[in-house]
Amino acid sequence: MKKNSQTIKLAFSTAIMGVLLAGFSACGKKDANSPGVEFMPDMYRSPSLEYYSVHTVDGDTINNAMKPVAGTVARGYIPYAYPNTPEGYEAAGLNLHNPLSADNKAQWEAEGEVLYSKFCIHCHGATGGGDGKVGGKLPGPPPAYNGPLKNLPEGKIFHSITYGKNSMGSHASQLTQEERWKLVYFVQKLQGPKEVAVDSTKVAAPEKAKK
User: Fold this and answer.
1) Cβ-Cβ contacts under 8 Å for 109 (sequence gap 6 or more)
2) Angle of the 154-163 helix axis to the 177-191 helix axis, nearest 10
3) Domains of the chain (ranges plus CATH)?
């Protein structure tokens, strides 16, 4: 009787092992790259963390992005002295000039045109007429470079690209200062020859009618 009992147990164990093996084999056939049963899934697929987000580990709040050391300045950073105010805008127009040598003007214009086609053409249009596919749908399309903005000085152009102006947002995070100055060269090309020697976007007072 004892011998029969052992035989039954052996057969039962063999059957269970067969079922388990069949199950593992079946799982493997679904995906040739499957590792099979994962005993510790987190070791295979650790939870991802969003960039620049704050998360908690063991009760401590951690920011993914490390803050720069106090008093340090980022490599390539060039301070910009003119604030984003009406006074800063006017001061930039009077005092700020393109640091890129005019000797390479053709090169700067060509490189500025490439940047213009990526960041500006959708609103300002191919010729700077304010007739881009996006600009034309705005409540107030951008003024034309060869029209109301024809005499806009280089400093104000750079200032507007840096901080944004009216419906246009800031491009300082997308373009370096050198790229913005190259863009200024191309915008000036679209403006054509200046009609006045000095600034401005200010509207001149109407002339008195001659008697």
Assistant:
1) 182, 185, 186, 189
2) 130
3) 86-191 (1.10.760.10)
Residue 136 makes CB contacts below 8 A (sequence gap 6+) with: 130
The closest alpha carbon to 201, from 119, 121, 89, belongs to 89
What pTM did the predictor assign?
Answer: 0.62
CB 137 within 8 A of CB 129: no
> Distance between CA atoms of 96 and 89, rounded to whole angstroms?
10
Query: What does the buried/exposed string (b/e) look like for 63-72 if buried means 16 or more CB atoms within 10 Å of the residue's CB?
Result: eeeeeeeeee
Return the biggest CA–CA distance within the chain: 136
The Cα–Cα gap between 54 and 62 comes to 6
What is the rounded distance in angstroms from the CA atom of residue 39 to the CA atom of residue 35? 11
Q: Which amino acid is at 50?
A: E
Q: What is the pLDDT along the chain (211 residues), one digit of tens a residue?
A: 555 666 666 666 776 776 666 655 555 456 777 767 777 766 666 667 676 777 776 777 777 677 778 888 878 778 899 999 999 999 999 999 999 999 999 999 999 999 999 999 999 999 999 989 898 788 888 999 999 999 999 999 999 999 999 889 999 999 999 999 999 999 999 999 877 644 444 434 334 444 3
* Spatial separation of the C-alpha atoms in residues 45 and 53, rounded to whole Å: 20
- How far apart (Å, rounded) are the C-alpha atoms in residues 162 and 164? 6
Length reported for the chain: 211
CA distance 38 to 196: 76
